Amino acid sequence: MTPLDDLFSTQDDRADSQLEKVVTLNPAEISDFPNHPFQVRQDEDMAEMVESIKKYGVLVPALVRPKEDGGYEMVAGHRRKFAAALAGIAEIPCIIRNLTDDEATIVMVDSNLQREKILPSEKAFAYKMKLEAMKRQAGRPKNSAPLEPNLKGVRSNEQLAANSPDSRSQIQRYIRLTELIPPVLEMVDNGKIAFRPAVELSYLSKEQQQTLCETMECEDCTPSLAQAIKMKEFSRDGKLTDEVILSIMQEEKPNQKEQFKMPKERISKYFAPGTPAQKIEDTIIKALELYRKRERQRGMER
Questions:
Q1: What is the pLDDT of residues 125-157, one digit of tens each?
Q2: Predicted local confidence at residue 151, as pLDDT
Q3: 261-294: per-residue pLDDT in tens?
Q4: Cα–Cα 20 to 30 A to 183, which of 77, 93, 96, 150?
Q5: Which regions of the chain are under pLDDT 50?
Q6: Residue 183's closest CA among 163, 201, 162?
């Protein structure tokens, strides 16, 4: 049966109703995207966004999708929503778009990968969510948007790399980070553990990672790439015990040898401008050796 509204509307009216429009919504009506992998941080950039919104309002509409039980779900615009709340803005401009779960996931990831500052953990979980969504779409072609002509027959991970700033192998490394336990992953985000060693550590079991975490805290050190690879190999062979982890982490690394540092301005007057650091170090060592030799001679003369 023809809907009653269609009996009293023209084709142009019905077509117009299908067009996306910018509407204003109360941020309280918009829930966050489930398991949103990108953090909304109250940092300097957020402070600048808040000030901009106070002056000019939200200039770029957020993208939301309607929820079955009422209200809307944010797809792209979490930072704008948060900043608007801090700025005391009661309504923000939004585009309402009907999207499936997988379509929404892909749009959400793509829109956030454009950020300048992205943590390794954010990329890791974002890439994983998008790849899983793309695989589901590939398995249900009737329920998903068709692939681009030049991507037909291409594997999901290859298609993901084709539309991402990272290569396929780099994306795979990022996704490996999702296997790290939270304390270790936090150390990666904080820069305490480098990216490549972290990828190797992701192959350790959760229990082994926990032991490593405790060992790092006790020994006040982090693994180098060589040490991470060594632990991965021991783990693969079923030989990575607590004792082995401790033994590997107690190995001295060049970058963890105790060093003595002196402010450059204290010694710069004794050297010509542009003198290489190694030459300055060698000269100081020779001077100290000469000083020690003279002190010994004075002691013998006494």
A1: 999 999 999 999 877 644 444 444 444 445 777
A2: 40
A3: 667 667 777 877 767 777 777 788 888 888 888 8
A4: 77
A5: 1-5, 7-9, 13-17, 141-153
A6: 201
Angstrom CA distances, 35 to 105, 108, 115, 221, stand at 10, 11, 18, 32
Place of tokens 């992205």: 118
For 295, the token pair is 């002190």
Length of the chain: 302
